[in-house]
Design a protein that fits this description.
The complex is a heterodimer of chains A (260) and B (232). Chain A has helices spanning 2-27, 224-256, and strands spanning 37-43, 46-50, 66-69, 72-79, 86-88, 95-98, 103-107, 110-114, 120-121, 127-128, 135-136, 147-150, 155-159, 165-170, 173-175, 183-186, 189-191, 200-202, 211-214, 216-218. By secondary structure, chain A is of the alpha+beta class. Chain A has 2 domains: 2-81 and 222-256, no CATH class; 86-216, no CATH class. Chain B folds into 2 domains: 1-56 and 188-232, no CATH class; 58-186, no CATH class. Chain B has helices at residues 4-27, 192-228; strands at residues 37-41, 47-51, 58-60, 67-71, 74-79, 82-86, 92-93, 99-100, 108-109, 112-113, 121-123, 128-131, 140-144, 147-149, 156-159, 163-166, 173-174, 178-182, 184-186. The longest helix of chain B has 37 residues, at 192-228. The model of chain B has no long low-confidence stretch (mean pLDDT 86). Classes of the chains: A alpha+beta (260), B alpha+beta (232). Chains A and B meet through α1, β1, β2, β3 and β4 of A and α1, β1, β2, β7 and β15 of B.
């Protein structure tokens, strides 16, 4: 009885974690460049009361044995890096990556990566993100530039009033063998870890890298309906586990009542 | 004391085990590839748990490294303690660009661990993995998933993390009747209504044994009172 009480409790804890992840996803439904998370579960260890294949008293062998599972636990919370949809903003420094790749910005002394391409210019004319961290490698737009064009291949051209190109430079993108292994830092930033592998530098449109869309932002890849369905399923599973606890408790009570 | 009271208590303890199995099934509602357990009672003293290998529902996820096995078979995984088998297909890449499970253990192809260049691979229904390097035409076959099955006589034991292993080191056979669905996961295969019914049944049967034990106890009490009272 105690076994099933604790087993159901692990199930409830797992569903609670599931719900936390879904809540975070839904809260970020409108966050530019946000990638959804998913909690992955595994079953806990099994207690072998009778190992499969054990000999029983009458010289026959048990085909299956008695294995008691101990419930479930969260093994990982994984980022799902599928493409988000695009919103047209018309802002000339808004960039969306169509395909693989991250922008790199320098945040303090750390190199961090983001897919949120809402860039602007800082007071010195450098392209920086919403928090003022400069895009790497640094690109400075000279004074007098009236328009900035960025093509799909990442070629940036700033032109003055007469249409003369003041600066041409190419933007870089960075990719990782396993983006799901990156650590999320919040504020749309992530950093590589041992699990993600080392960054590869490339230009938009290169083999394996995505292309850039100027004047667009990448929405989060959350599908609200999908998250809602996951939420319902999670809530019901939570409920089912709580019923198991209730039933186990009732059985314990009956056991206590054997001696009236 | 009569033997019946022990019989009833052993039977009540069996119901406790059933309850533990039901609890484990329900706790694993969200574990991909989980196969439910059921308890079979042979007689008063022997029972066994049986893993029901029925197909779970296929849930599309859109993640290129999620795979669902439809039909028979297991993936072979190189765990630290040896080769384990699983149907949980929520795979990922490690820092060496090897396809691994969520525990970080390499999934074995027919020629050992599978290395890819990028996580957006294409996985064919027969388990062939193509590295399409993003978008180019030159797709390279980097490995074929080694989907295996066991003979019906093989005894499989569940270890934690959704893995099974054969008890007596039986060699696996190549699986034939399966397809690999990319971008989907196999859900756990239990039916909540069924498990709830089993839970209610188990709890009621337990109650019945409790009543039986009470009756035995009352009978004993009467017996002692009647026999022990010379005036009775």
């Amino acid at each position: 009885m105690i076994r099933s009480l604790w087993t159901a409790a692990t199930g409830m804890a797992a569903q609670q974690m599931n719900m936390d992840v879904i809540a975070h996803n839904l809260a970020n439904a409108n966050t530019t460049g946000y990638k959804k998370s998913r909690a992955n579960f595994e079953d806990l260890m099994y207690q072998n009361l009778t190992p499969p294949g054990a000999e029983t008293s009458n010289n026959t062998r048990l085909l299956n044995g008695v294995q008691m599972g101990m419930g479930a636990k969260t093994v990982s919370v994984q980022k799902i890096h599928t493409q988000g949809s695009f919103t047209q903003t018309g802002n000339q420094l808004d960039l969306a990556v169509e395909g693989r790749g991250f922008f790199k910005v320098l945040r303090g002394t750390d190199e961090v990566y983001t897919r949120a391409g809402a860039f602007k210019m800082d007071q010195d004319g450098y392209i920086c993100d919403a928090e003022g961290n400069r895009l790497q490698p640094e690109i400075s737009i000279p004074k007098g530039a009236v328009a900035i064009n960025i093509d799909a291949g990442g070629n940036l051209t700033a032109v003055d009033q007469e249409g003369k190109a003041l600066v041409t430079q190419r933007l870089n993108l960075f990719d990782f063998p396993n983006p799901a292994g990156m650590i999320s830092l919040g504020r749309n930033y992530c950093m590589p870890t041992e699990a993600s592998g080392d960054s590869e530098t490339g230009q938009p449109g290169d083999d394996g890298f995505g292309t850039l869309l100027q004047g667009f932002l990448e929405n989060s890849n959350i599908n609200v309906v999908e998250e809602m369905v996951n939420m319902i399923v999670g809530q019901r599973a939570y409920e089912a586990n709580s019923k198991v606890i209730k039933a186990s408790d009732d059985m314990l009570q009956m056991a206590n009542n054997v001696k009236s | 004391m009569r033997i019946g009271i022990y019989g009833a208590s052993i039977a009540a303890m069996h119901q406790e085990k059933t309850m533990a199995v039901v609890a484990n099934n329900i706790a694993n509602a969200a574990t991909p590839g989980f196969k439910r357990e059921s308890v079979h009672f042979k007689d008063a003293l022997h029972q066994n748990t049986h893993t029901q290998m029925a197909q779970g529902r296929i849930q599309p996820t859109g993640n290129p490294l999620d795979i669902a096995l439809v039909g028979e078979g297991f993936l072979r995984v190189q765990a630290p303690e040896g080769i384990l088998y699983t149907r949980a297909g929520n795979l990922t890449l490690n820092s060496e660009k090897m396809i691994v499970t969520q525990q970080g253990w390499p999934v074995l192809g027919q020629n050992g661990p599978i290395r890819v260049e990028h996580s957006n691979v294409r996985i064919e229904k027969n388990g062939q993995i193509f590295d399409d390097r993003g978008k180019t035409e030159e797709q390279e076959l980097v490995g074929t998933l080694d989907v295996v099955k066991f003979s019906p006589q093989a005894r499989l034991e569940k270890v934690r993390g959704g893995y099974v292993k054969p008890v007596e080191d039986e060699a696996p056979l190549p699986a034939e009747q399966f397809t690999v669905e990319q971008g989907a996961l196999e859900e756990s295969n239990f039916n909540l209504v069924e498990e709830m019914a089993r839970m209610i049944e188990s709890s009621r049967v337990f109650e019945a044994y409790q009543k039986t034990i009470q009756v035995f106890e009352q009978q004993e009490a009467q017996l002692i009172n009647k026999l022990g009272n010379p005036n009775g």
